[in-house]
Amino acid sequence: MLLFQPLLDAKEPASDTAQLPVIMSSSGAGYDALYYFIYWFSVVFFVGIVGAMLYFVWKYRRQKGVKAAPTKDSTKLELTWTIIPFFMIIVMFHVSFDFYIHNAVASENALEVRVRGQRWNWSFQYPNGEGEGSVLYLPVNKPVKLVMSSSDVLHSFFIPAFRLKKDTVPGMYSQLAFTPTREGEAQVFCAEYCGAGEKPGSGGHYSMGAIIKVVSQAEYDKHMQEISGPGDKKPDEWGKELVQKSGCYTCHSVDGSAGTGPTYKGIFGRKENLSDGSSVDVDENYLRESILRPNAKVVKGFENGNMPPFVFTDAKLDAILAYLKTVK
Amino acid sequence: MATVASPHSGTAAPDPHASYLAQKGLASWLFTLDHKRIGVMYLVAVLVSFLLGGIMAILVRLELLTPGRTIMDATTYNHVFSLHGVIMVFLFIIPSIPAAMGNIMLPVQLGTIDVAFPKLNLASFYIYCFGACFGLYSMIHGGVDTGWTFYTPYSSKFSNSAVIPMIGAAFIMGFSSILTGVNFIATVHKMRAKGLTWRRLPLFCWALYATSIIQVLATPVLAITLLLLIFERVLHLGIFDPSMGGDPVLFEHFFWFYSHPAVYIMIVPAMGVVSEIICTFSRRAPFGYFFIAMSSLGLALLGFLVWGHHLFVAGMSEYSTMVFSALTFLVGIPSGVKIFNWIATLYKGSIDLRSPMLYGLGFIFLFTIGGLTGLFLAMLAVDVHLHDTYFVVAHFHYVMVGGTVIAFVGGLHYWWPKFTGKMYDEGKARIAFVLVFIGFNVTFMSQFILGSRGMPRRYYDYLPEFTTLHQVSTVGSWILGVGFIVMLVMFIESLASGKKATNNPWGSVALEWKTPSPLPLHNFLKVPVVTKGPYDYHLATEEELSED
Ligand SMILES: [Cu+2]
Ligand SMILES: [Cu+2]
To answer: What pLDDT is attached to residue A9?
Structure first.
């Protein structure tokens, strides 16, 4: 499509326009060019149609003694306005599909990040196995491939600043490929309706957001270091930070009140009644299992809480357990 | 058809020349086999549904007036927008033009005494009511919070709301839709008056015919889909559950295989109404009659091949998306053909701007926007960003409300004198039109920008940057609401004290305007024989065009 090549190569503007937000990815500028192309095409068509309509309504308004002219059908005219739009849509289809396919393919050396949607938050896992929730760091100008899935219902990972969106489906992987081109924060939304919690403040589809922080390579590397080790923090401090970042507090309280899940207060060493009627003493192994495979043993009364399974390195699990022991 | 049942019940045979409204008493309505009375009952039912769905819409917009909580909590909001969708789609729009207006006008336009199967017709109405009762039951016992799309696995495993009765309601109402479709197809084939050849068939009949074909072919797919969903929810069969080897996306395919054609169940009859209005108020035969008629059938056919455009970002293969995108573009052609032909009909016409025509022209304006923004969504690359945002919400409201509802209301203004024998206050009708038109555009134009700037749909709360546009939209919904209230008042006044309508208040040459207003019991005083087309204004005598 030589004619439209400039459109696909468009680089500027990166700032936000009346109809579209700021662009932070490689495909954004081309997207906006395509969007405004179809926009102006529509404007011209609309003005033509409505203009003709209004003109005729005025010109041929009913007047005494003037009769409507008999209708003479014209097959030529009919074919004209069938065939010309036909070619127009072929062009439109072609340009748009080219662009779509061009952007659907991830480059070979892309940074591969796993994305998991669960009601009502997003969690991410970097190539080094480290994970975090609600915030995703990406290095600028480096191709990225997101491999995404969902733990419960359909969600959709939507980043307006990247002009990208893809549904996440339980039991299936979907992908997004792009290159962030601008440092800054990009808002992520969930675009596929996924319900809401019964209790006020427990979140829902509308609050299922995340932030993508596009940073320099150096900053990205620094962040990777930070999340993979305790730094100069004590184990239980690090554990507390991990619990906070992983969104555990949305379901678990530390003040003894029951949330979606049992409280952490005095959890270590207490006796827990399970939904199958048995009971268990809370020790390290039980806690470990409860976090990695929550459904293996379910606490009585919390059968519908649906705690999602989490992935942590051993070092992190140790830190979390160290923290849980301190909650009295 | 010798077997046509008499359209009236009761023991004493009423005078066939009297108005169809002459007989009094509840029983004369509930047990009637007269297509007009069944149509009127449908009309009342869909208007009540429209009122309910409209209240839900106002509540949704009100909640979105400010970020955070305005009047309700998130769960309630999810129920309200779901009910808005379910009610508007299944209880209002789908039966609105075909079952309510078509029921009354089709036999009259065909120059016959009733539909082919009057008892089936009454049955379809009661099935609709039965379905609506299930819907009501669901609303009282917890409502639904799944959206009108019932996507799995949310609807099958996660939602705590009364999903089953609501799905049951949609399932049952599907039968009513199928029966109406079958009835209309048979009626158009078998019951046309002498001399009413296919090429003289009014465009509204062509549209209803095309719609009926979709209803008969597509609705069973919905029925099966909903049945599977009920089984899934009750018995946990695992058809749509990935943890049992099922596939949630399969539901999306099934659902849209019906629900895209359903869009044409909604819009094609609307186009039929608009064709009638434009010809009558331009006093001119439609330009390209044959092409308008065939484009209805074209839309009906193409409608079956494009459901995949609802799944562009659902993880289909690139090749399927390509095929669906290409086919979706094709829909633009028959739609464009209609618009071009309507405009060409206006050319050298004798155009009168009374209220039905305002709605006819309003339709062209709004539907053109709805259609053109459809191109954005048909373009694969562009859809990726716009999918599931307010842009889509605005787009389908321009088609569904700007298209179908405007045409439905226009048709109501147009045929009101035939239905009731009364005229309405033209001044108030115009005020209502202006309010509805402005209110509608304010409500939904702002939503296009909300969407393209990244606001996802079905959100209870939103980022502060979206506040202004949301507020504009909410104010628009108030103007729209006031417009409909003025219209309601105007129609009620007309019923109570409207001037008596003449047989032909618009000076039309179509068959339905040659018989008394309100319609006589047997539709015509003597069996009509058709010798000209329904739009042959150039052959018309002064007397035929006379409005008194
Ligand atoms: Cu979600
Ligand atoms: Cu569709």
So the answer is: 52
Q: Which two tokens stand for residue A26?
A: 């490689």
Domains and CATH numbers, chain B: 28-541 (1.20.210.10)
Torsion of Cα atoms, B407 then B409 then B413 then B414, to 10°: 20
**Residues A45, B368: C-beta atoms closer than 8 Å:** yes
Whether A83 has a pLDDT exceeding 70, the answer reads: yes
Query: Please, are residues B53 and B84 in contact by the beta-carbon 8 Å criterion?
Result: yes
Structure tokens belonging to residue A59: 């010109």
Write out the two tokens for B493: 């006044």
User: Buried b / exposed e across B489-526, counting CB within 10 Å, b at 16+?
Assistant: ebbeebeeebeebbbbbbbbbbbbbbbbbbbbbbbbee
Pinpoint the alpha helices (H) of chain A: 5-9, 28-59, 75-104, 217-228, 235-245, 284-292, 314-326
By the CB < 8 Å criterion, does B547 face chain A?
no
Residue B233 has pLDDT above 80, yes or no: yes
Mean pLDDT, all residues of chain B: 92
Q: What is the pLDDT, as a whole number, of residue A1?
A: 35
The conformation of residue B92, written as its DSSP 8-state character, comes to I
Q: Which amino acid is at A177?
A: A
DSSP state of B539: G
Summarised one tens digit per residue, pLDDT across range A4-13 is 444 445 555 4
B151-171 per-residue burial string, b: 16 or more CB within 10 A, e: under 16: bbbbbbbbbebbbbbbbbbbb
* Cα(A46)–Cα(A52) distance, integer angstroms: 10
Nearest chain A alpha carbon to B541: A67
Judge whether residue A96 has pLDDT over 80. Answer: yes
For helices B203-235 and B289-302, angle between their N-to-C axes, nearest 10 degrees:
10
Span of B5-14, B24-33, B265-274 with lowest mean pLDDT = B5-14
Q: How many CB atoms lie within 10 A of CB A105?
A: 12
CB contact (8 A) between residue A19 and residue B249 = no
Residues A245-281: pLDDT tens digits?
A: 788 888 888 888 888 889 998 888 888 888 888 889 9
Residues 210-239 (B) with a CB less than 8 A from some CB of A: none
CB count within 10 Å of CB A7 equals 18
Average pLDDT, chain A: 87
Is B382 close to A96, i.e. CB distance below 8 A? yes
CATH 2.60.40.420 segments of chain A: 111-227
Angstroms from A219 CA to nearest CA on chain B: 28
Q: How confident is the model at residue B95 (pLDDT cuts 50, 70, 90)?
A: very high
Question: What percentage of chain B carries pLDDT values higher than 90?
Answer: 82
pLDDT of the residue at B13? 64
Per-residue model confidence as pLDDT tens digits over A212-229: 999 999 999 999 888 877
- ipTM for the complex shown: 0.91
The residues of chain A that CATH labels 1.10.760.10 are 235-324
A235-324 in CATH: which number? 1.10.760.10
Q: Rounded to an integer, what is the distance from CA B363 to the centroid of its chain?
A: 13
Q: Is the peptide bond preceding residue A13 cis, with omega within 30 degrees of 0?
A: yes
Q: Is the dihedral of CA A213, A218, A221, A222 positive or negative?
A: negative
Pick the more confident residue, B492 or A302.
B492
Mutate to test the interface with A, among B144, B244, B313 (most CBs of A within 10 A): B313
The full length of chain A comes to 328
Q: How far off is chain A from B275, nearest CA to CA, in Å?
A: 14
CATH code, residues A111-227: 2.60.40.420
